[in-house]
């Protein structure tokens, strides 16, 4: 079975991808079964069914947990993989739920899936430490009971994916990012209404489809001014509003307007948005043009150097963005120096795949600077 690999550097491009899809990111799971078999499997495990036995897994942290029917307990089974960028992004949210409700009856179980061995997961979980404080298991492989009785039976086609079980019965299956405190509390206190929840989800899905029907044609046609006007019709607390504006301004390459938007974000006008979010999105496409030098100089504060004892992978990722900012701010010498320093420190990165990807990226950037005095957007270098 071929498994998808998601190099760490690819995460640099995920920000803009999420802006354009306007949905929770989810990595496609490998699927080898014939269409008829897959269709049949989708019908065999549904909400309201008795949960299959939790068996056939290898425990990497905590456990074993064999039964999912202890009175008063709510079980959140979170399926993820080390190669899945969206999975990694949602781990802090899942961890927060565990820390807040673990003592109140919530049992979180992370299950590493769609990987040929548990080696990568073991290393990842160990490195996460308290950032992944709940029990974690490895699925046991594609022929193990967990794969057949849970993933295949439920027709899971993408991760992250969560199953929620109470009293031995599956209450819902959903993307973990959509599991909030209100939902967990209703499950714990017994007020959760599966039928009502399903109806609400259906209504939300319909509203989302209508939303996309209005927005996506404008984005696909590149009518960015109309996209911005559409965004302005949304409520101020709608987190899609700033996402759409960022996408439109970066595609328009209107760096002057984006800098003004950044100031609004810094003033906390938009809920849950930070200047780092805006800067990261912008850095994927920022290029020389009106307002770009000023934007680069302003954004350098976001990507300032971190202490020597910080995670080397994060230092390298920020460093590549920072070196490009230095270049666009007019300091070519500083940009080259930083890239060379990053290249010299690559051996400190433990993830061999990420190390190789960053090495290639840095070499491409240095070649561009030295050969034709340019530093293209990071995503374009990655795709060369």
TrEMBL record:
InterPro entries: AhpC/TSA, Thioredoxin-like_sf, Thioredoxin_domain, Thioredoxin_ResA/DsbE_sf
Domain of life: Bacteria
Subcellular location: Cell envelope
Coiled coil: 332-359
N-terminal signal peptide: 1-25
Keywords of the record: Coiled coil, Cytochrome c-type biogenesis, Disulfide bond, Redox-active center, Signal
Family annotation (PROSITE patterns): THIOREDOXIN_2
Pfam families tied to this protein: AhpC-TSA (PF00578)
Domain Thioredoxin, residue spans: 45-193
Transmembrane spans: none
Name of the protein in its database record: Thiol-disulfide oxidoreductase ResA
Native source organism of the sequence: Rubritalea halochordaticola
Organism phylogeny: Bacteria, Pseudomonadati, Verrucomicrobiota, Verrucomicrobiia, Verrucomicrobiales
Name of the gene: resA_1
